[in-house]
């Protein structure tokens, strides 16, 4: 008998299979056999279906895992993007701060501006990349979201987060772009304006000048260019410090603004130089009127850091088209005219005249030749004796430089020392003078001539050079001259500079044994209490007072007062530029002990001076 039992799973199972020759197989009627076969086939199909179902589930799971991976990747991408944005934001903030700092302090140098501009360009490129990055990421999200319609809630949530982060990134990118715009605008401003005064700078002024030329050419009109610089600004800067100097320049800029119309341009060329473009004048006299207004406006005291500062300017004026048809020529003409204004006593204005450019060219060629003069050994020292007016004995000598030019002949120092000071060449020239004078003094000593002190002029630039003291020490050592045979003549302006530094150098020199004197005393502003404390040993009365002391009572009073004061302060005093017997007599009567000037001897070459030293001042010299 066939034993049929109900299976839990599919309901039918046989334990006695006749086809397999199973001992449990029974011989069934054919209709039963057909039924059994049909039932078996159904069973197999059902089982195969279950396997297919399993495969689909696996595939489904695999897809889910892949989508999860995509979502994680997206999340990571979004996080990277966010980090990148934050980083860029910091950079922008830094750039912006640098620019603002630059604008505030006026210290943004041209190089910095260039760097900032390059940074802004980089930043802009980065922002563009960032935008591209966010766009492609968004596209990817959309694509993957479409693919994953059937994604799990988890997957959807991750997608939403990634999307939200992308939105943040895009907003950041927009902000970044705005900030870069702001920085770019500021850079643009800085590139065309002076950081200290906010006036148009050289570049912008050049642009405006070119525009004015173009317009004036078309309309057949004239316009004026005013070139000006502050008289003796360097002294204020050196003595009161750059902070005060900067404020003074701001104050000057402010007052100049008040003197011109809106259509005119005032620019700062650099340092204490300003250029004004008066774009609409009918006659040259209009420019003169404005120049005069500027002189008046600047003359009132400038109150800066509790200092009442008085400044004046010298102004040179050139007119388009008479004095130049191009920007450069107009500026040059105005510059030459300004030099003449300065030479004419400062605090005034001068119109350009054609012969001025000849002098400007001459000055330029002096500078070029000066650069070669040291190398070509064209300098020579002359020596002028200092005399004890009572004994008529030579008590010292001043070394004075001359330039033996191959074409121009012997050039006096007044024609090239100021130029050498302007262009800094006075530093190597000064070192040469000091060495040459020390060597010469030593040679005279070795030749058995009476011991005397040799004096060397030191300009403010030389005194303030960082290696000045070291150079004096080294020169004395190398030339073998004893320090007390060297005297340094300083101008009053040297004493007005950085007090602490000046004091320490003066005392170091005095400790070495070097003598110190003040040249041209009376024309500066030396404080008497300072003189008392300083190691200065001698005052040299300025030639300008000595020249008129016998004819002008004011000068006579000044010279008498300086002699008297020197004695009280226990300082030696010497009158410079003594030329006449009357001046000599005046000094004797006022008990001035020492004198120097043509009355005793002109500056002479070293050999002649050696003879003077041996023989004394000959009576044959004009007296
Ligand atoms: N009219 C007139 N002039 C007289 C008389 N006695 C002397 N002098 C001139 O007065 C100037 C005196 O020199 P300083 O006041 O130091 O003024 C000097 C000094 O400031 C500067 N200098 C000259 N040599 C040097 C140098 O080696 N180094 C530096 N840094 N400056 C120098 O150039 C200035 C002019 O020098 P120099 O042309 O040599 O002119 C000299 C001298 O030749 C006189 O009785 N009447």
Automatic annotation (TrEMBL):
GO BP terms: cellular response to nitric oxide
Location of the GGDEF domain: 221-354
A molecular-function term among this protein's GO annotations: cyclic-guanylate-specific phosphodiesterase activity
One Pfam family matching this protein: GGDEF
Segments of skewed composition (Polar residues): 13-23
SUPFAM superfamilies to which the protein is assigned, alphabetical: EAL domain-like, Nucleotide cyclase
Region (Disordered) residue spans: 1-34
Protein name: GGDEF-domain containing protein
Taxonomic lineage from the root: Bacteria, Pseudomonadati, Pseudomonadota, Betaproteobacteria, Nitrosomonadales
